Structure formats: C-alpha cells, structure tokens
Amino acid sequence: MLIHPLVPYRQNGLALLIFLFMTMAAMLALIVGAHAPPRLDDDATNQALADAQEALLAWSMARPDTQRAPPGLMPYTDRANDGDYDGQSDCVVTDLDNNLLRIGMLPWRGEPESAGNSNCEGRTDNTARTDDVGTPPFDASGSRLWLAVSRNVIDNRVFADYADIVAGHRFLTPAALRSTAADPHWLRVCGADGQILADRAALVIIAPGAPLGEQRRGGAAPAARQFLDAITLPAPCGPVVDHAGATNTYVLAPRSAGFNDRIRYLSRDAYLDRLVLRTMQSLRAIVAAHAAAHGGALPDPADPADAMLRCDPAWPAAVFGMLPAGNGEGCAGLLQAGPSPWPAWDDPADPQGWFRAMRYRRIDAGQAELSIEGCASLFTLQLRDGSLRLGRDKVC
User: What percent of the chain has pLDDT over 70?
Assistant: First the structure.
C-alpha cells in the first residue's frame, strides 16, 4: 500500500528530465546553428537555374522567319565591359575562341542597340534581340546568375550573312552541330570525382552563391573571380578547374568551404532537339499554307537528282525524295514566285542549309514523313480536320 503514493512522484520526475533534455537540445541546436556555415536553399537555386535556361532557350528560338539571323543563337554575356553589370550583352567583335569573352552574368535585358558593337543585333533589322530574356535571375543567396556559352552557338554576326557560324558551317543544322569541326568548341562539365559528365555542352548557367573567403563584390563591376570559384579535382578533369579562368570546363560538385558554385548545363543534343522542333514548326506552317492553296493535298516530293528540285507526281510513295522547291508537271512546289515563304535565315539552294538537309516522303495526299540529316527523329505530317499535325517518333 505504501507504493501507490510514490507513483505520481516518479512520473513528475520523468517529466522534469524530459523537459530538461529538450531544453538542452534546443540550446545546443541554437549554438550549432549560429556557428554553422550558411546553407543555400538548393530547391530555390535549382529552380532559378532551370527557369533561366528555359528563358534563354525561348529567347533564342523566338527570332521571326523574316530575319536573316537564324533562331537558336545565344546572346553574348554581360561582362561589365561597359563599366557595370547592366543586364545587357557586352558583344565581341573578334576572338570568339577566347572563353573569357563568352562568360559573364546572364544578360537578362538582351542585346543593346549600339553602332559600336557590330556583333550586337539589337540595332540590326528588328531582330528582337533587345527583348528581355526575363526578369533579373538570382540564386537563393541573392546573387545574379552567370552564363558560359559555347563558341558553336553564340551570336556571331561579324559577317552580315552569318558565315562561319559553326566552325566553317553557314547554318545551325544538326549535321553542322554534330560535325567533328564543331567538337572542340563545346563546353565540358565534370563531376567532383574528376570524371567527365558531358563533353559537348552548349551552355552552362552558374549560381555563384554567397561570397566565400576573400571574395568582395562591392562596386559597379567586380571581377568574375569575386563571384566564381576554383576547385581541385582528380584526373582527367583536374588538377584545378577555375570557373573564372580561361576555361571551357565547369564543375558540378557539392558545396565546400572554398567552392559553392551551383551549375546547370544544356547538352548539345538537348539544344539541338529544341532547335529542330523550332525549325519544324516553321516547315509545318509553310506546308499547311501550301496544302490550303492546292486543294487540301500535301506537295509531291522532288527527285534529289533534279538540281531545281521540282515536284514530281510520279515519285514513288515508298521512297524518300526531297522537299519540292519548284513547280513540276501538274504540281506545285513550296517556293512560288514572289516573296518566298521559306525562312530568310535559310537558303534552299545552299547544300549546307536546312532545306537540302531534309528528306521527304509523301504517303498520300494527307500523310507524309520527313527526316533531317544528322537527326534521329522521323517526323510525320498529317492533314486532319483542316489542320496539319506534326508528330515524331523520338528525340533528335
């Protein structure tokens, strides 16, 4: 009977111990948290990187077909070459192989209209290059995002006809972008173990994070080294990769005491696939208009051996021919007299261009298939309910 009065006291003692333990744990957490290194919100930073990549792609693909400048070309970066990071591209006239001239803050305000920057298209032919890429892009630390661009896809208009866009190629076609001549000019991405994650990246977007160590970001135009970090790696990517140096290599690695750059990269193939889809949308509109003007039927293919690429109604349905440029016997080609409906950024007569890279097979009046040299996709064109539908079997 004497044991019952002691039970409440045991429970009160246990509650007191639990309370004391929780209080000490909370105090310890506050002490550790006060001295722990600041952590970025990875989700917010990763979302900012993804949003910036999509904005760049959408901006680069938005050029109208009436312009000589082809879609897909990326902007020059904001290198503070004009005295500050103003959000506009600082364009380069020469030495595009110099990686230091192709890395800078992401130019969210597009390209300027300046007669002194002959490579900036904001002033040329209403190319919409002065349009904003998007709102100012920041990572979770409040730092503006940075951008590195491959020589193969940067906006090179030293020559008015865009000669030598891709290592001697006039057009941004799949064959040009996948050529051996283009290979040395892509960016490389490595992991923390020094292994290569991607050796053909079209662009890399970098979130610099909060300043580390001796980094100081005051003033109008701090150097790239005040934002971007270097890291020591094993071979083959090591021994040192410096994001602020004259490198074409960038590192996807966990944060450490001396490295907190976060990156997102776009591979050549992902870039190319987006570019092909953009081009195919232009083709779809042209073929749809042609069908509407010619009895609701898709055009007949052309014989590849015909230098004029005239449509040929006798071309066998089971065989791929070419897109028809000119009129044939009893049929109409895509390119009629007068203003050409074909995009001004391509040349149907140039063997390096998009038009001549396409192979076309008409199955019947309402169905056709199309392929592009250097692209693994097989596209389908199908007239249904008065509209032309575009499909494909797989990515490029």
Answer: 79
CA–CA gap between residue 272 and residue 50 (Å, rounded) = 18
Dihedral angle sign, alpha carbons of residues 115, 91, 223, 95: negative
Q: Which residues of 170-184 are buried (b: 16+ CB within 10 A; e: fewer)?
A: bbbbbbbbbbeebee
Distance CA 279, CA 345 (A): 11
Cα separation, 372 vs 273, in Å, equals 11
Q: Which two tokens stand for residue 229?
A: 């970090």
Q: How far apart are CA 200 and CA 57, in angstroms?
A: 17
Write the CB contacts of 217 (distance below 8 Å, at least 6 apart in sequence): 143, 211, 226, 227
CA-closest candidate to residue 205, choices 53, 41, 40: 53
The pair of three-digit structure tokens given for residue 86, joined into one six-digit string? 């103003």
* Helix-, strand-, coil-residue percentages of the chain, each rounded to 5: 25, 20, 55
Helices (H) and strands (E) in the chain, counts: 5, 12
Gap between the Cα atoms of 43 and 211, Å rounded: 19
Q: Which residues, including other chains, have CB under 8 Å from residue 92's CB and lie 6 or more apart?
A: 76, 101, 102, 119
Cβ 322 vs Cβ 358: under 8 Å: yes
Tokens of residue 124, six digits:
């040329």
Alpha-carbon distance of 280 to 261, in angstroms, equals: 37
Q: What is the mean pLDDT of residues 101-118?
A: 74
- Residue-wise pLDDT for 133-163, tens only, equals 777 789 999 999 999 999 888 876 554 455 5
Question: pTM for the full model?
Answer: 0.83
Rounded to the nearest angstrom, the gap between the alpha carbon of residue 210 and the centroid of all alpha carbons in its chain is: 25
